[in-house]
Specification:
Blueprint lengths: L1 E7 L3 H16 L4 E7 L3 H5 L4 E4 L7 H10 L3 E4 L9 H12 L14 E2 L6
Parallel strand pairs: 1-2, 1-3, 3-4
Antiparallel strand pairs: 4-5
């Protein structure tokens, strides 16, 4: 089972998104676990993470966070600005499916930055 970690500064935004994503993942019958986290607990949780989703308000820190994820064997992606909006959880779920290899990428020229490490499973 793959683990997805959504990280934001204090954990509130990522928690709300994680709750919405869990419903979508359950409805799609995907073998994924979605957790929310903070910058403070990131290093403790990366070893068990396959996909790190970074909140858009952390864009200025994304490069460093992605580097840490890759070192831990995870793939990282910066979430789009609209991820906390009405359709944001659906958008994030689609990206998770693509990053986990559960479906083909919708757009190979996507504007959202992604750093891929060696995915572990």
């Amino acid at each position: 089972m793959d683990r997805v970690l959504i990280v934001c500064g204090a954990g509130a935004s990522s928690t709300f998104l994680a709750v919405r994503l869990r419903r979508i993942i359950r409805d799609r019958d995907l073998d994924l676990v979605v957790d929310a986290g903070t910058l403070a607990d990131l290093d403790d949780r990366l070893a068990a993470t396959r996909i790190l989703l970074v909140g858009p308000h952390l864009a200025d820190r994304y490069a460093g966070l992605a580097e840490r994820a890759v070192r831990a064997g995870a793939v990282a992606e910066l979430l789009p600005e609209n991820v906390f909006g009405r359709d944001g959880a659906e958008i994030a779920a689609g990206r998770i499916e693509e990053l986990a290899g559960l479906r083909a990428p919708a757009d190979l020229n996507a504007e959202t930055p992604t750093n891929r490490g060696d995915l572990h499973g």
